[in-house]
């Protein structure tokens, strides 16, 4: 594309939104301040007992555009009868005794941070800028709970499936080539799928491409 794509109508489409009140607030993450501009993603992982939120933000020192991701611990993993935390309505519908994987929430956060750090030299991936772990304030549902915040670089553009039927073939081919380049770059760091005999080459037929780029190849077909 010669010019940046205009924002698709109705973007973002949030199925659930409870943290829009954070927009306009300034948070210090690590050693830098960031102004939260717009909530673009929010989800609830019952198994991890964790809410996640993704916001566009700007660094207060220079206006640099970033992504801020919140990992919000949602109270105790035991029955609310035994603690003073309010329970989110989604959690209230689940038998807490069955949420045996809630401890994986911390592991999931660390895995995401490690992935950002590992891919810092691969062009086209977000890079971590700052991170912090603190106590939730009164603006959250569970004051006193753990709040992890990660600030990362913001990549330009929007999800490709929102432009179905609007792109020329050369634009589609360019995006596909970029996906393959990024995955090959990750593999060059020693994270390729390998067998005892050989390392798998990365192509359109590689399973990781079918998963990572499924929308691209599904909506636009193979080259």
Structure description:
- This protein has 223 residues and is of the alpha+beta class.
- The chain has a single domain, classed as Phosphorylase Kinase, domain 1 (2-Layer Sandwich).
- The protein contains five helices and six strands, in the order ββββααββααα.
- It has helices at residues 89-92, 104-118, 169-191, 207-212, 214-220; strands spanning 26-29, 32-45, 50-59, 65-73, 128-135, 146-153.
- A six-stranded antiparallel sheet has the order 1-2-3-4-6-5, with helices on one face.
- β1 and β2 form a beta hairpin.
- The chain is globular.
- Residues 77-102 and 192-197 have low confidence and may be disordered.
Helix content: 10-25%
Order of helical and strand elements: EEEEHHEEHHH
Kindly provide the name of the CATH class: Alpha Beta
Number of domains: 1
Radius of gyration: 20 Å
Please name the CATH topology: Phosphorylase Kinase, domain 1
Cα end-to-end separation: 18 Å
Mean pLDDT across the residues is 76
**What is the tally of helical segments?**
5
Low-confidence stretches: 77-102, 192-197
CATH architecture descriptor: 2-Layer Sandwich
Class derived from helix and strand content: alpha+beta
- Indicate the overall shape: globular
Considering the protein shown, what is the CATH homologous superfamily?
A: Phosphorylase Kinase, domain 1
* Largest sheet features: 6 strands, antiparallel
Multimeric status of the protein? single chain
Fraction of residues in β-strands: 15-25%
Number of strands: 6
Organism: Aspergillus caelatus
Protein name: Aminoglycoside phosphotransferase domain-containing protein
């Amino acid at each position: 594309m010669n010019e940046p794509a205009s924002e698709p109508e109705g973007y973002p489409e949030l199925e659930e939104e409870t943290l829009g009140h954070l927009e306009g607030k300034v948070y210090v993450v690590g050693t830098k301040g960031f102004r939260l501009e717009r909530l673009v993603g929010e989800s609830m992982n019952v198994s991890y007992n964790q809410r996640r939120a993704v916001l566009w933000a700007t660094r207060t020192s220079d206006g640099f555009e970033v992504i801020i991701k919140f990992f919000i611990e949602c109270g105790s993993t035991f029955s609310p009868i035994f603690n003073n935390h309010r329970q989110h309505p989604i959690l209230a519908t689940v038998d807490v005794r069955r949420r045996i994987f809630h401890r994986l929430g911390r592991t999931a956060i660390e895995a995401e941070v490690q992935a950002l750090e590992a891919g810092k030299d691969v062009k086209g991936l977000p890079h971590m800028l700052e991170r912090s772990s603190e106590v939730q304030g009164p603006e959250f549902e569970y004051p006193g709970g753990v709040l992890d915040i990660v600030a990362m670089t913001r990549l330009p553009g929007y999800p490709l499936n929102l432009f179905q039927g609007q792109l020329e073939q050369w634009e589609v081919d360019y995006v596909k080539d970029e996906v393959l380049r990024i995955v090959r770059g990750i593999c060059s760091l020693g994270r390729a799928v390998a067998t005892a005999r050989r390392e798998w080459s990365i192509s359109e037929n590689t399973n990781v491409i079918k998963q990572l780029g499924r929308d691209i190849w599904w909506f636009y077909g193979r080259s």
